[in-house]
Amino acid sequence: MEVSTNLKAGVARLDITPPIPIDCVGFIRRFEPVKGVLAPLTATALIVEDETNGDRVAIIGFDLVAIGIEQGKLIRELIGKTVGCSPDSVLLNYSHTHAGPHPFDDMTLHKLGGDLRNVSEENRNYIMSLPDRLNSVAYLATQNMEPVRVGAGSGKAEGISVNRRERTKDGRVILGWNREGILDTEVQVVRFDRPDGSAKVVIVGFACHPVVLGGENRYVGPDYPGVVREVVEKATDATCIFLQGAAGNVLPLEGFYADEGPERFFGERLGYEALAAYSRIRTADTTINQIDYGSATPINLFRHVPKKDQSRQPVGGIGKYVTFPLKPLPTVKQVEDKLEEYSANYDVAANALKKIDKEKDFLNWREMRGRLNPLEYYKIWAEKAVKKARAGNAETSVDGYLQVIRIGDIAFSAVPGEPFNEIGLAVKQKSAAPYTFFCGYSNEYIAYFPTAAEYPFGGYEPGHSYHNGNRLETVGPECEDIIVNNLTEFSEKLFT
User: Fold this and answer.
1) DSSP 8-state class, residue 460
2) Which of 64, 257, 294, 453 is the most exposed place for a label (fewest CB within 10 A)?
3) What are the CA-CA distances from residue 395 to residues 321, 336, 462, 476 (Å)?
4) Is there a contact between 47 and 83 (Cβ–Cβ < 8 Å)?
5) Cis, bond preceding 21 (omega within 30 deg of 0)
6) What is the DSSP letter of 54?
7) In 3D, which of 208, 202, 189 has the Cα closest to residue 230?
8) Residue 44 dihedral angles phi and psi, to the nearest 5°
9) Are the beta carbons of 165 and 454 closer than 8 angstroms?
10) pLDDT averaged over consecutive 10-residue blocks of the chain (496 residues)?
């Protein structure tokens, strides 16, 4: 029996693999350009329309490490015009694969990793093509709209990810395994069914850095999210979209492999958990009917039967730019001291590398060459930072876009960067929606967003992840409340 619905949905996918050879970004010690494609990078678009009023929303998941602030704004505006909705109703989510190209239109953001110190002309052309590519896939999704119903559910993927904020015996925090740390292992699943009950689209969300493959792997690829999509699509005959969650402090338990293969184990485990959740979801309102059935003894049979009048499933979106304050900035002298320190460290390593005979001691040379890259990365940051500090125009805050998309009883809550998984948990717990699907890594890249409680411990994310860009400091501990409070408010406006 087919069910009635007020929703229509369309879906499409495009290949967005960059030209080869190209430098991948995501591992500072990686200095060699990639030599091939392990699996295509893709962009997948979902367009959902409420036929009762014509409102539309768009969700696009794609395999890149990030996109820039102006870039994200441009793409959302472009897609909004193409599909006929507000930019506030367009959600962009990048999987954060560390085996993709430099994607930023802001060329002042220095490229991480690679012997190709400057962004190549081919890479620049690729970057400039991204808005049109993502807009194209959204347009294609509008060309196969058909009636759907939507539902959501969850599973758990235990034993494949870890809270990476490891406390060492000497009081430091390194990237490792914090066995006492909070870890969100929820696998979030949304399914869109046609009126006959067949699945059209499945969205899977999980929080973990896609770094099963490490910096020594020299192939472009989506890492485990690509495998998740493959597993789900093979089992359901639907199109699968992967959306990255609150992965700022989450790593694979087993990661950074040099050779491909382990990403399949991770992706298959996660994909199977998603399928278990998928199997429990009902997209139609039903009643349970009792049927009398006689055999050697009387038997009562029970059946879920779709209701004649299905509930309306609204769509909509709310988003706005908020101001994220930075931590107190260093003085000019402190930045100059950093430049002196970083330059000296780089010079020592560069001189040591020159003394190694590459032909006779290749392994030692390769290890030292890998160590040189991070030192140069810090030096490049410091050179730019000194100029900015001396000019007195360093920013003390940054504006970022927060958003909630509604589809039926589901809220897709989006953050522009890398939130810790405790923030994702808080947003889900405080949301006014019956089901909240949390999306980090959305719409643009601002920064890591640690919890306020983690700042005193220092370490990479709250301590020096600002080296990734052109700021003198990273965002401050106030940002946790800014994110949670705004997304809670947005959900209340959409669901109450």
Assistant:
1) I
2) 294
3) 16, 18, 17, 13
4) yes
5) yes
6) T
7) 202
8) -125, 125
9) yes
10) 91 96 82 89 98 97 95 97 98 96 70 66 89 98 97 97 96 95 98 96 98 93 98 98 98 96 98 98 93 86 90 97 97 96 95 92 89 87 93 94 98 98 98 98 96 96 86 96 98 96
Helix (H) or strand (E) holding 338, with range, is: helix 332-354
Q: Would you put residue 466 in left (φ > 0), alpha (ψ -120 to 50) or beta? A: alpha
Angle formed at CA 181 by CA 180 and CA 187, multiple of 5 degrees: 120
Burial, 336: exposed, middle or buried (Cβ in 10 Å; 0-12, 13-18, 19+)? middle
C-alpha torsion sign, points 94, 96, 98, 102: positive
C-alpha distances (whole Å) from 410 to each of 89, 188, 404, 433 are: 14, 11, 10, 6
Residue 167 neighbours by CB distance under 10 Å? 16
Q: What is the pTM of this model?
A: 0.96
Strands (E), 295-372: 298-306, 315-325
Instruction: Taking each helix axis as running N to C, give the angle between helix 421-430 and helix 479-495, from 0 to 180 degrees, rounded to the nearest 10.
Output: 30
Q: How distant is the alpha carbon of residue 104 from its chain centre?
A: 15
Q: Work out the burial of residue 372: count CB atoms within 10 Å of its CB; fewer than 13 is exposed, 13-18 middle, 19 or more buried.
A: middle
Provide the pairing of β-strand 239-244 with 199-206.
parallel
Residue 269: CB partners within 8 Å, gap ≥ 6?
A: 157, 160
Q: CA triplet 267, 210, 271: central angle to 5 degrees?
A: 20
What angle, rounded to 10 degrees, do the helices at 332-354 and 362-391 form? 160
Q: Give residue 39's identity as a one-letter amino acid code.
A: A
Rg of the chain over all Cα atoms, to the nearest angstrom: 24
Longest distance between any two alpha carbons in the chain, whole Å: 92
Tokens of 187: 């696998």
β-pairing verdict for 36-37 and 219-220? parallel
DSSP 310: P
Read off the tokens for 452.
Answer: 């306020």
Question: How big is the chain, counted in residues?
Answer: 496
How many other C-beta atoms can be found within 10 angstroms of the C-beta atom of residue 343?
Answer: 16
